[in-house]
Amino acid sequence: MKKLVIVVPAYNEEESLPKSLSVLSDVLQQMIDAKKIDSESKLLVVNDGSKDKTWSIVVDASKKNPLISGINFSRNFGHQNAVIGGLTAARPYGDVFITIDADLQDDVNAIPKMIDQYLNGYDVVYGVRSARATDTRFKRWTAEAFYKLMNKIGVEMIPDAADFRLTSGRVVDELLQYKERNLFLRGIVPKIGFPSTKVFYARKERELGESKYPLRKMLALAWNGITSFSVAPMHFVLTLGIFTTLISFGMMVYSAIQYFMGHVIAGWSSIMVSIWFLGGIQLIGISVIGEYLGKVFNETKGRPRFIIQDNLMDDQN
Ligand code: UDP
Ligand code: MG
Q1: Which of ligand 1's atoms lies nearest the C-alpha of 211?
Q2: Which of 171, 200, 213 is nearest to 188 (CA)?
Q3: Is the confidence metric ipTM above 0.90 for this complex?
Q4: According to the UniProt entry, where is the signal peptide (predicted)?
Q5: Exposed, middle or buried by CB within 10 Å (0-12, 13-18, 19+), for 145?
Q6: Which residues, chain by chain, have CB under 5 Å from ion ligand 2?
Q7: 222 vs 54, residue with greater confidence
Q8: Do the strands 124-131 and 96-99 form a parallel or antiparallel pair, or are they unpaired?
């Protein structure tokens, strides 16, 4: 039978973790009892440098329940790195992997359905939100605009699929070959290929604790998604540059005609407009180049994406 490892990134989740651990380990136990998965399956909590009691909750739970295990990062590395760190640590122990947030916003009833699809031969099963009723109108609107934009610039993404998904061992092996520091898993996983399908569920409101994804982090993730996968912004700036150059040619002809017709040109306003306009365009262009240069700088350093301080998996096995 196949060993499942459920990877749960957790950052300051002392409020929601006790409940999540019991709910998720119950789900695991039920699937073990139903002989769907191997009895050595695990719940692997990734403590992403929490400043609260998250890690001690995991350590205590792992002593009481052999299904529960954890790894402890040396500091906060961010959600995407917590997921990839969890999968890296889990890979030697498991055959199939599910990633889910610690706050139980995602419906745990989708987990057995994902496993069914895996047993049907699918390598990737995306958890897709069928209803976004719990999101604010603003979040829904920005999410929709984001998916549209990503599609336009050629990044294949599954709309309304977050990081709640199943991946088979061979997909995780391929995923771990993607060494980028600026991780955007939602864009990478569809690129890997293999047979994939979706399981739909209704996403709930966060019951305990508060979101670790304020608007600032959400925008940073979206920007990362665009710039890590596409040079479309550079193409856009090029088009803009060509367009403004054409306009400036038109201006040249216009002012030459005015000159030969003997008109005195009170050029102050047009000069001011051009200076500001071109200055703005140039700044945008430079900053876009700088953005990619910064990415290259970060990637070439090749620093570790996460650092594991403690690993309960090692002690337990
Ligand atoms: N998380 C993490 N590291 C971070 C921020 C968040 O591991 O730096 C975890 C968090 O504990 C949760 C998941 O990532 O399990 C998603 O975060 P959250 O629920 O706050 O995001 P939202 O659901 O509001 O988008
Ligand atoms: Mg959440």
Answers
A1: 20
A2: 171
A3: yes
A4: none
A5: exposed
A6: 101, 103, 105
A7: 54
A8: unpaired
Identity of the residue numbered 269: S
- The structure's pTM equals 0.80
Burial 24-34 (b: 16+ CB within 10 A, else e): bbebbeebbee
User: Which protein residue has the closest C-alpha to ligand 1 atom 13?
Assistant: 101
- The sign of the CA dihedral 20, 69, 101, 201 is negative
Alpha-carbon gap, residue 6 to 26, rounded angstroms: 12
pLDDT of residue 231: 67
pLDDT tens figures, 54-102: 999 999 999 999 999 999 999 999 999 999 999 999 999 999 999 999 9
Compute, in angstroms, the gap from residue 209 CA to the centroid of ligand 2. Answer: 9
Structure tokens, 23: 């709910």
Nearest C-alpha to atom 23 of ligand 1 is from which residue?
211
DSSP class per residue in the chain = -PPEEEEEEESS-TTTHHHHHHHHHHHHHHHHHTTSS-TT-EEEEEE-S-SSSHHHHHHHHHHH-TTEEEEEESS---HHHHHHHHHHHHTTT-SEEEE--TT--S-TTHHHHHHHHHHTT-SEEEEEEEE-TTS-HHHHHHHHHHHHHHHHTT----TTEEEEEEEEHHHHHHHTT---SS--HHHHHHHH-SSEEEEEEEPPPP-SS--S--HHHHHHHHHHHHHHH--HHHHHHHHHHHHHHHHHHHHHHHHHHHHHTTPPP-THHHHHHHHHHHHHHHHHHHHHHHHHHHHHHHHHHT--S--EEEEHHHHH-
Cβ < 6 A, ligand 1 pocket: 9-11, 13, 48, 76, 78-79, 82, 101-103, 105, 211-213
Q: What are phi and psi of 42, to 5 degrees?
A: -140, 160
Would you say 48 and 129 are in contact if contact means Cβ atoms under 8 Å apart?
no
